[in-house]
Design brief:
This protein has about 190 residues and is an alpha+beta fold. It has helices spanning about 15-20, 45-60, 115-130, and strands at about 30-35, 35-40, 65-70, 75, 80, 85-90, 100, 105-110, 135-140, 145-155, 155-165, 170, 180. The protein has a single domain (about 45-185), classed as Alpha-Beta Complex (tt1808, chain A).
């Protein structure tokens, strides 16, 4: 039996948030960056497990009222992104489909082969422009997960706070005081 073909035409203008509602729910991740549509395939199981483990570590350490959400839509200037993890401030609204950047203290991207360039270059610049105070990028190495930590500097770009690997758990202050230990996550 043949699969139905989804036919659509790109808008004759920059992509907007409303256009995302017209796209198929096929598991792909549809994001808008500076008015252009970016499509990535669904993440694999290893990616999802790593994101789940990091989300749980953040949730267990979170002060009351803070939320740690997987794959929530995020509005940024001229863009609609879907970070793997968003840490949402206690006073942020609890309804709606899209987070506002001002309500987010940290975004985390778990690298996949299909998202590596966006996670390293494109998305951090959009997150910085949106004013999100912290950005973490997680990559897998042969030794286990490595977390690259960044902090917004002068409101325009991220400055490295260093890396945390499976052999060097550390005590952090962002987004709140907590111990980060990647050795507890899957390899």
């Amino acid at each position: 039996m043949a699969q139905p073909v989804y036919e659509w035409r790109p808008p004759e203008r920059d992509w907007r948030e409303q256009d995302l509602y017209d796209l198929p729910e096929d598991g792909n991740r549809y994001e808008i960056i500076d008015g252009s549509l970016h499509v990535t395939p669904p993440p694999g199981f290893a990616h999802q497990e790593l994101a789940d483990d990091l989300r749980m570590a953040l949730r267990l350490a979170a002060p009351p009222g803070w939320r740690v959400i997987r794959e929530a839509g995020l509005r940024a200037p001229g863009s609609n992104l879907i970070p793997d993890i968003s840490v949402v401030k206690p006073d942020a609204p609890r309804d709606g489909l899209w987070l506002h950047a001002a309500d987010v203290a940290l975004v985390v991207e778990v690298e996949s082969p299909s998202s590596r360039r966006h996670d390293r270059f494109t998305k951090p610049s959009v997150y910085a422009e949106a004013g999100i105070p912290h950005y973490w990028r997680v990559e897998r190495s042969e030794f286990g997960p490595v977390v690259h930590r960044y902090q917004l500097t002068k409101g325009v770009h991220y400055e490295s706070l260093g890396t945390v690997g499976p052999d060097d758990p550390v005590q952090l202050d962002e987004p709140w005081p907590m111990r980060l230990d990647p050795s507890a996550w899957p390899r």
